Amino acid sequence: MMISAIVFVFVSWCLISIIVHRIILLGGESAREKIIFWTRRETWFAGYLIVISILMAPLFLLRLIPHAGDFISWFAVAYLASRIALVLPGIAVGRAVSLGLSWRLTRRYQIPAFLIIGVLPWALSFPLSFLSGIWYLVPVRLVAELLIALYTIAAISVFYREVVALEYAVKPDDEGLEAST
């Protein structure tokens, strides 16, 4: 039962993320075209999410470092996420963005990427940690976490759009990036 719940949440977030990325990057019409089905795009998206999770898993071992481990682990995860996150909106709009290309695209924008994709979502989430022991505020916390997650997806989309525009002098749906197959 627990595994099916995890799979359901994972699949739901893949679908929601793709829809949000497409709305932000391609406009509202793309959402009307998107009937919620599982296609090759969703499979690539889910696959990359799994790969990203596997890449980040060892960074959580840094938490074992006495005194500063939590901060070092958080910093490493946030930095890595901010450098490779451009893969996800690229897949959502049908443009080939590998982990290596995402790393290269964010090379000149490491600090803004880290602040927008790593620090700001954490800063918004941090106050929610104080609500964890208050049972009657669980719905408030869940709604707030949902909104923060949607902000993070939107921030990654906007960051992708701006970086691609700066690096390729095109809109993400133009021919500046090779279409994925």
Task: Tell me what you see in this structure.
By secondary structure, the protein is mostly helical. The chain has one domain (2-168). It contains eight helices and no strands. The chain has helices at residues 2-26, 29-33, 40-56, 69-84, 87-92, 99-105, 110-125, 138-168. α7 (110-125) packs antiparallel against α8 (138-168). The termini are far apart. The relative contact order is 0.13.
Total DSSP helices: 8
Question: So what's the oligomer here?
Answer: single chain
Cα distance, first to last residue?
Answer: 35 Å
**Uncertain parts:** none
Strand content: under 5%
- Major β-sheet annotation: none
How many separate structural domains? 1
Q: What is the chain-wise order of helices and strands?
A: HHHHHHHH
Mean pLDDT: 86
- Classify the helix fraction into a percent range: 55-70%
Kindly provide the radius of gyration, computed on alpha-carbon positions and rounded to a whole number of angstroms.
Answer: 17 Å
Gross geometry: globular
Q: Briefly note the structural class of the backbone.
A: mainly alpha
Q: What is the total tally of β strands? A: 0
